[in-house]
Each structure stands twice: as C-alpha cells, then as structure tokens.
Amino acid sequence: MNHANVYDVIVIGSGVAGLSAAIEASKHYRRVAVIDKLPKAGGNTLISDGGIVGVGSDLQRDRGIEDSIELLTRDMLKAGEYKNHEPLVRLVASESKRAYEWLKTQGVKFLNRVDIFGGHSVARGLTPVNKKGKDIIDALTMCAREAGVDFYFRQSLRKLHMKARKVVAVDIAKTQSSSVKTLHVKGRVVIATGGFGHDQEMIMKYAPQLQHLMSTNLPSAQGETLRMLDAIGALLIDMDAIQCGPWASPDEKGFGHAPLFGDYIVLPQGIVIDPGTAKRIVNEHGDRKVVSDAMLDLPFALGMADHNMVGESGWDLSILLKKGIVKSFDSLDDLAREYDINPSNLVETIDDYNKSVSQKGLDGFGKQLGHLSTIHTPPFYAMRMVPKIHHTMGGVAINSHAQVLKKNGEHYINLFAAGECTGGVHGASRLGSMAITEGVVMGRIAGGYKPPHTH
C-alpha cells in the first residue's frame, strides 16, 4: 500500500461544512484530505451572502437584543413544521454562538449589524464584511492549508469501500475520467457534499411541483453522493422537503444580487404584492416556505420599499439599480405604469397598509407592525420577485455525533456527514442564515469536535 494514499480523515466536499470538518480533524488526526469535484473550494457557500446566526453574540448584546437557545429552537421547530429531529435542532441552536466565535478565530470578520429574517423571533443574523460566503471560504481554506490539509480538486467520489459498518477506502477520479485513484482511511470519512437543488431528476422524483422553477444553486449541486449512500444502506429522510428562496428575481440567473434587496429590505421592512390585483399576498415576516408558497402561482410578485426603508437598511443598492433588477420611481403612478398595475388599487393598498402601521399591533396577515415605517417617501423601489429552489432540507440521516445512520437504525462506525447533504435539522423549512450555522456546528462535530455539554 502506498502510504501517500493513506489518510486518517477524508472529507468529501469543501463548502463550509467540509472545511470546518477538515480544520477540526487536523487538531485530532495527522493526515487529513479534502476531496471536491470543483476546481476550488466553496460549493454553494461561495455564492451565498455568508450569513450566520449566533445566539447571545456580542453584536446582539451590544444592541440589547434578548435571545436564547430555547427561542431559536422554537423558531426552527415551528418553521420546520415540527418535522425536525429536535435533538439536532437543540444542538445547532446551543452551538450557534460558538460557531460564530470560532469563525472569528479563523479570520472571518463580520459587519457591525444584526439583521432579522422571516421566521426568526428576534434579530440574530450576522453577516461577513463583504456580504459574501466567499469571506468564510477564503478564511477557512487558508486555515486548512496552514494546518497541513491536502486538497484534491476536480476529483469526484466514485465509490465507498465498506467492510461491515466501516469505510476502509474511497475511490476518486477526475470528472469524466475512468482512471480511479484509491485513498485508504484509518480514521473517519466525512460526507459534506451539499444538497441536490440543481438535480432535475431528483427534483422531479421528490418535488415535481417545483420542476419549473429556477435554482439559486451552482450546477454542481447534484445528488450523486446521496444516491451512493442510499445504495450502501444509509437512511435518507425528508427528501421531499425542498425550500425555495422567495427573495430571488427572475431578472438574473442563480442566486444573484436580488436577495440584498428582497431578503434584507423588502421582507423585513417593505411589502410584497400581486401586480395583477395590487394587493398584498402574505405576511412578509413569514418564514421562507410561507412566503414562497404565497408566490408560487403568480408569474411574479412585486417587492416594494421606499426611500426611508432603503436608507435605514444601510445597504448599497447601486449594483441592483445599475443592472435594472431593482428599479426606482419618483411616484407610485410611475411604478404602477412600469408593471401594468392599476394605480388606484395600488394607492389603496399602500394607504391601507400605512393606516395599519400607524395603528401598530398586528395586521390581517398576522404581521407585527409596531416597529415598522409607513411607505410614503419617494423614490419608491420595486423588484420582480419569484421563488427559486434554494435549499434541500432532506438528505442522509445522522445522530447528534454526526454519524450516518443505516436504514436498520444502526450507525456506521466511521462514516459521518454534515451540512446540506444531511436531513433532520430543518424539517419542512429552513430559517435564513441557519445553513452556514448548521454547516459549521455539524462540520466541526463530524471532524471530531465535542461540544462542552456532551463531554
């Protein structure tokens, strides 16, 4: 056996979960390898906004925001329609602050702000300084390399060699190549290959009603590893739970820039209307499933905000305005004309909304209006919005040690998984900023980290 091809830990996938696992594993094992079919690290994390949740973070504390592990747990369970595996939910919630603090020790810098997203009871979203998951990937890749982790890029997993409940080796090969390289493993194998949000065959199988939608995912977000795990007897769960991002726009491909306006301004502060009726369609503070479901039957919805809302958000919309994804209007009549909306109906909707805001309390959709502003100051901003396939909540089943479970209820001895390729954490729907939180928490555990309460 060529000792150069023998590793203590092999991680498949180099997104936030895989890199977190590799860095953690390097503290406990001598030889660690990361395999990825792409030419560089990152996966879908690379194209995300990089948001994370940290319950009790310094940024929450500085603003006097009261939060708790129990409150985040309740929010996640509610969004997940209580289909989540509660021990995993509590684990991710309880480790969220440590995940955020760990990222800072790895060199990730965060903006001095805290945002609230639909389904969260309080503001707890924390964002890297450049509003990009690339900030996290670059920092973690550097840390992994400094720790001596070996990277194999443009290499796909072809086979897991099993001996009873243990992985003894993996076959990898360059894409489209028949030349296979076998890497032997003495310790653990971590699967962190992400979801299947760009796999039309699996979308058709598990959620055919979504087949016509665009995806925010990279084309590499396929389900080949899940098929492989299924074939060796691993348990797949919640595969039909596929989340759409309601803050996307049909006027750009993929994830794009639209979430900066849709997720950070429209949904927390503005309104979403049906252009055909000029009426609001949903509680904009609802979780992603609630808002997406309200939009699915429309050609597109229209997200709106005014000058004050954009100014108070602190976000720079220049790239969105330059690309014409977000448009600015001096009057509601101009806005209505652009989107072929009945202007009097639009004014009536805005007037009704403003009246509700001035009265505080809840509106007819159950939206809490007490802290919100009226829509009255031009310019008015608008963006066409559609749901795009964003996150697959289902995947391989794991326990609280990140060990992969078999269909017969046993767990594999040295096969672990973390991140979007796993099921059970989010149930029917994931809350915003929880994917990277989960990836860091479960990735570190898969790599050998033991949370304090499990010691």
Task: Characterise this structure.
The protein is an alpha/beta fold and 455 residues long. Strands 1, 2, 5, 6, 7, 8, 17 and 18 form an 8-stranded mixed sheet that branches. Helix 1 packs parallel to helix 5, helix 1 packs parallel to helix 14 and helix 4 packs across helix 14. The two termini are 37 Å apart. The longest helix is centred in the N-terminal third of the chain and has 20 residues. The protein contains 14 helices and 19 strands. The mean pLDDT is 96.
Q: What is the domain total for the residues?
A: 2
Q: Tally of extended strands?
A: 19
CATH topology of the largest domain: FAD/NAD(P)-binding domain
Helical content band: 25-40%
CATH architecture of the largest domain: 3-Layer(bba) Sandwich
CATH superfamily of the largest domain: FAD/NAD(P)-binding domain
Low-confidence stretches: none
Query: Quick check: average pLDDT?
Result: 96
Amino- and carboxy-terminal Cα gap: 37 Å
Secondary-structure-based class equals alpha/beta
What would you report as the Rg, rounded to the nearest angstrom? 22 Å
The tally of helices reads 14
Report the sheet with the most strands, covering strand number, pairing sense and barrel closure: 8 strands, mixed
Please state roughly what percent of the residues sit in beta strands, choosing from under 5%, 5-15%, 15-25%, 25-35%, 35-45% or over 45%: 15-25%
Quick one: CATH class of the largest domain? Alpha Beta
Shape: elongated
